[in-house]
Amino acid sequence: MSVPAGPERLVVGIDVGGTKIVAGALRGGELLGAVEHPTDTSSERAVIAGIESAAREAIAAHRPPLAVGVGVPSQIDFATGRVLTSVNIPLAGEPLSEDLTRRLRVPVVVDNDANCAALAEAHLAGVDHLVMLTLGTGVGGGVVVDGRVFRGASGLGAELGHLVIETEGPECPGACPNRGCLEALCSGQALARDAAAIAVAGPESRLAALARERGGPPAGVDVVVAAGEGDADALRLFERFGTSLGVGMSGLMNAFEPELLAVGGGLSRVADLYLPRAVEEARGRALPTIAERVRIEVARGGPEAGLLGAARLAASEVGREGRAA
Amino acid sequence: MSVPAGPERLVVGIDVGGTKIVAGALRGGELLGAVEHPTDTSSERAVIAGIESAAREAIAAHRPPLAVGVGVPSQIDFATGRVLTSVNIPLAGEPLSEDLTRRLRVPVVVDNDANCAALAEAHLAGVDHLVMLTLGTGVGGGVVVDGRVFRGASGLGAELGHLVIETEGPECPGACPNRGCLEALCSGQALARDAAAIAVAGPESRLAALARERGGPPAGVDVVVAAGEGDADALRLFERFGTSLGVGMSGLMNAFEPELLAVGGGLSRVADLYLPRAVEEARGRALPTIAERVRIEVARGGPEAGLLGAARLAASEVGREGRAA
């Protein structure tokens, strides 16, 4: 195990999502308490002020921390801590690490939120080599190699949600020019798209009825509810979801040979609807020597996994660079 | 650049292929001479004796080397140097590193040949982050991260030829249970399969005629020759080959974000038949921030790239583990 257990000195982890910002202070890897606030996405300035205030609140009762780690749902140029692209919150172009370091007067390390979640998961699961897929509105990816976050040459790698598994598949619903990628087939948006097609073709379908009851267009949650009731349309969508996920997993197993392939994100709470199918498909397709070595599991991480990973990352990066005060 | 330039002490690199074994001694990264022998694949014993004799010949004029590196077309459990599976030469189950260390009385490091080629290519191209695809009879893969070979948890990773890009695509012609993977679509065997289908459906086709002239079933080389003549069937096959390759490349770019994606192997000598199509497809599908950073090029490595990479690997591994005499 080379994932460090965390330093004895205080570090702060912050998980910035499209709806809320969660921050917490840790000592010796132990969470001393967490605060949660809604994300004000009205402007870059508002988001950054929200991160700063969550950080200040998390450390209010303590001495200044060794470092602060921040996970954001964005592409990060890791060396500079600058946000390159950001879909759900307005941070694109922002030199986030520099800004927050200046405001908080401690080293701030910024990374993609899925990278932070993967680092937390590797620690929780006790593995050094991990691939994590986060299935929610979109599909995120994080990779840990030898206990460290794998980022590619400049921090943009591990975008596992945009691995193509169907050359002529549907267009990606995210900010990606691809088609037939995992996000186009195994995401909440993909479920919503397919449910809408079913509801339009069959106004008497259960999916159409559920959407009418909610008073909106069909959404991923309708497919989850309908599948729980045994609705044939919804079960068929999750069957395809599981098959596609398994196909993608086989490629990730062959490419990364992790000890553990973890499935997290909001849709991991209903993994029984698709994960058995995905595991069967993945194990049948991966090279047999690899299939027999890689475990596939639902991620252990709870609601604090993102901030725990961000804190862990900050501690290891600042320790490594000798930037500690 | 963290790929080491090679030690001043002598190291030996050996590239073991299905048809020949090439060995050479290096000092300070410079090749002092290479020997080449046909591979006797009649038994494990014969292959190992062939590797031993090539090694002895390569070092005959010199003092004992610091280490010997051997690249084999096999899956290797890297920690033990044991061969797990091997398709074209009989080495499966062999504790190759241990056997050769005992025979040669110097540390012997064994790795997959595509990993060795990737390490050589990273050095030749002057990059620390590389993904390499070797297109030949099958499709091999090698990944260099931060100047070191990336292997996954136990040495089985970077099997990039078995990344699925068409869920319902053709069965893999290699020893892989998958379908629609890169090897099933972008390999010499895939070209031969498609050429055979065309020749059977159209005995008057140019591909059928070329196979008759050669006196065998259609092969990848017939498609290359016919494409060079402007034959429409062959050009269509290479168009599809390029598209599929580009789809796979987009996934590798998104997952690994290398500085350089290099295309090597025997089919890289006719890259003009498919690489422009592949590059266009890959750049159109990868995330734009990644597409603009990753270079895509034909591999620089010549016939000695495999042995140079094996030697470089041996030097760095033995140096790292302090196993040097």
Instruction: Please summarize the sheet with the most strands of chain A.
Output: 5 strands, mixed
The name of the CATH superfamily of the largest domain in chain A reads: ATPase, nucleotide binding domain
Radius of gyration of chain A: 20 Å
- Total number of β-strand segments of chain A? 12
Note the beta-strand portion of chain A.
15-25%
Give the SSE order of chain A as H and E letters: EEEHEEEHEHEEEHHHHHEHHEH
What's the number of helices of chain A? 11
How far the N terminus sits from the C terminus of chain A, by CA atoms, comes to 27 Å
Q: How many separate domains of chain A? A: 2
Largest interface: A-B, 51 and 51 residues
The CATH topology of the largest domain in chain A turns out to be: Nucleotidyltransferase, domain 5
Instruction: Return the CATH architecture of the largest domain in chain A.
Output: 2-Layer Sandwich
- Quaternary status: homodimer
Q: Report the CATH C-level class of the largest domain in chain A.
A: Alpha Beta
Structural class of chain A: alpha/beta
What's the pLDDT, averaged over the residues of chain A?
A: 93
- State the strand order across the main sheet of chain A: 3-2-1-4-7
Approximately how much helix is present in the residues of chain A?
Answer: 40-55%
